[in-house]
Write the structure tokens for this entry.
Amino acid sequence: MTAPAPLRVVIADDQASVREGLVMLLDGLPDIDVVGAAADGEQALDLVAAHKPDAILLDLHMPVLDGIGATRRLAAEHPGVAVVVLTTYVDDSSVLEALQAGARSYLTKDADRTDIARALHAAAGGLTVFDARVHATLLAAASAPPAAEPPERPSEPPDGLTHREVEILALIARGLTNPEIAEQLFLSSHTVKTHINRIFAKTGSRDRVAAIAYAQRHHITART
């Protein structure tokens, strides 16, 4: 049986030592082929256009064109390339900006080689991977009280969501599990699961973490 072709990856980081270290770490794996390394977002876009990789490992803060800008351009110009952010920044604004721009996964630079490789493969397969610190940041951002009076909830929910789906999405954003949602809304677990599947489809969310980010962007919060 023929082994699958290695995942073709571009690496972008403005720090030469970090960039070269990542190339050595990942290119040494049998299932990853590093086809290019860039020092800024513009170089990364040029390499992606030239090599057409499966995924790109991208720092956020780079000169010329930063990671957020590069991610937006990649999503528009090369939608088939999975963007995995690897950065030291885990504040909620950085995480949410990256996800809104089109990043598929978000890791911090203390991730080891196995975690990075797993995230790259998962992202190339259409899945989302966040490390524990990023997941915690998203949950905290979704549950934190607003600094100012929140915008009024639109009369009609976005993206064709029903009012019940908005209600369930808000509870997901608070970190409730399916059984907890079912208990609070007096629904069966099967009904809750059906609603959540519809929420994922309508919002383009691959998992609960992506749905939490969607709820944050649209100011969907549970009413108490």
